[in-house]
Amino acid sequence: MTFSRVSIVIDRSRPVPIAEQISSTLRSAIIEGRLEPGARLPSWLDMATQLGVARGTVKVAYETLADEALVFSAGAAGTRVAEKPACAPIRSEISIPRPLQDIERGFNLPPLPFQMGVPAQDAFPAKIWARMRTRAVRDYATAPVGPLDPRGHPELRAQIASYLAISRGIRCVPDQIFLTNSYRNGLALALLTLQAHGRTAWMEDPGYPMARKGLELSGLQPVPVPVDGEGLQVARGVALAPDAAVAVVTPGQQAPTGVAMSPARRRELLAWAAREDGWIIEDDYLSELKLSGRALPALAGEDPFGRVIHIGTFGKTLSPTLGVGFVVSPVSLAPRFGETAAFLTPSFNVTTQLALASFLADGHYLRHLRHMKSLYRERRDALRAHLGCDFGVEAMSGLAILMRLPDGTDDVALARRVLELGIAPFPLTPWYIDERRAAPGFLLGVTNIRKGNLEKACEALRSLVGRQMGEAGHLRISQKIVVSA
User: Fold this and answer.
1) Could you give the domains of the chain?
2) Lowest mean pLDDT, pick from 4-8, 112-116, 352-356, 403-407
């Protein structure tokens, strides 16, 4: 059929439905301008007669175009081509900065040697996970589905509760657990629930930069509280902000120092929260992967007052692509957490949750953690030995080595420069709130250091940092940072 500048040809040998062939031809003509706005299309009957198809087939094609706002019904005046919406010209000079551009080198990029926060890519149990995932997709596709629980699937929440009781000393029921897609999402859920806008929050100094920014975006004022060899200096926090609403801490393995909070400091912190009606947000940072000695129980497991909100994630132990974390709420806050989750941060991706539930139930996760601890210890020691030949290094207790740089070194600029050499150490100074106490250095992640890239990565680091230091002295690697108030 040909009308005006449009030719419609029906090919019955094609697997494409006839209605779709008609709508596709008309769509192209409208978009390309061969059918101008206001042009009248043939009636259903006329089009069907000329093409030798059923009138209902033409009706389906026209309705498809109407759904796309390309044509409209004008009643007795027939079906006509719609006016194209006026589009404002795109300004070529617009440049929108990406998020985290001062922290992350980019997104969806393969990890580089020394990069922090990314598990060993070569040690992910891909075959087992693929089997679990395939089974979960198949089972869920055929299961009757009603409204989803915004807290997360009950099976996974029950498995997490069992795991926490065994490995982290936390006694809780599944209804205290709320699934998230990451630590940061868990922090957002906690801050939304606490509704502490306008209040102050203790923040470890040095401490996780993203947590600090999260507090600021939630309307809280972070107060830097120094960290020493026993963890957060609680007495200093009381002196600086006794009426703080929240304390954000990493008691199991402090980031970035690797220090474990001492029993005395734990008791002191819990007593402060109970006395001042404050809340403690526990970031259980890599505590399952403590490489030296036994991991201490979670702070939430030692809390007799119900003041600790525990946040964990599988992103750093399995893979960030899973997008699964969790929050353990105190019993008193669980109803409010549930309401916040239901209205603002509902659960997600049920098939991934079911696959992870099976992964935990079958014991794969605990076996994976044992394997990763051995692997990371081996990689840490290899890096320590390799750098030690030149620098006399010692490994810290976490999954990174802390390399001190001379005072006055711009470690942020230096970290950008070494990206060109194919390595991604993290600068130390952004971890400090109080710039007067900031000490330059590099954090060298060990998780993706392998025999195939160890020599090249260390040589790149040695050449650039060596030139930067000149005669300033030798590099120092420290097992822990000891800072004074």
Assistant:
1) 2-81 (1.10.10.10), 123-365 (3.40.640.10), 366-478 (3.90.1150.10)
2) 4-8
Report, as an integer, the average pLDDT of 29-46.
Answer: 88
Instruction: List pLDDT tens digits, range 194-244.
Output: 999 999 999 999 999 999 999 999 999 999 999 999 999 999 999 999 999
Q: CA dihedral defined by 422, 289, 183, 342, rounded to 10 degrees?
A: 140
**Cβ atoms within 10 Å, residue 32:** 10
- With contact defined as beta carbons under 8 Å apart, do 281 and 248 qualify? yes
Environment class of residue 426 by beta-carbon count within 10 Å: exposed (0-12), middle (13-18) or buried (19+)? buried
Distance CA 220, CA 214 (A): 9
Pair 308, 300: CB distance under 8 Å? yes
Average per-residue pLDDT for the chain: 88
Widest CA span in the chain: 90
pLDDT score of 391 more than 70: no
Check if the beta carbon of residue 221 is closer than 8 Å to that of residue 209. Answer: no
Tokens (6 digits) for 292: 């030296």
Count the residues in the chain: 485
Beta carbons within 10 angstroms of residue 274's beta carbon = 14
Contact assessment for residue 281 and residue 190, using Cβ atoms and an 8 Å cutoff? yes
From CA 80, how far away is CA 36, in angstroms rounded? 9
> CB within 8 A of 37, min separation 6: which ones?
81, 82, 83, 84
Confidence of residue 72 (pLDDT cuts 50, 70, 90): very high
Indicate whether this model's pTM tops 0.70: yes
- Sequence-separated contacts (24+) of 392-395 with Cβ below 8 Å: 392/474, 392/476, 392/477, 393/475, 393/477, 394/477, 394/478, 394/479, 395/477, 395/479
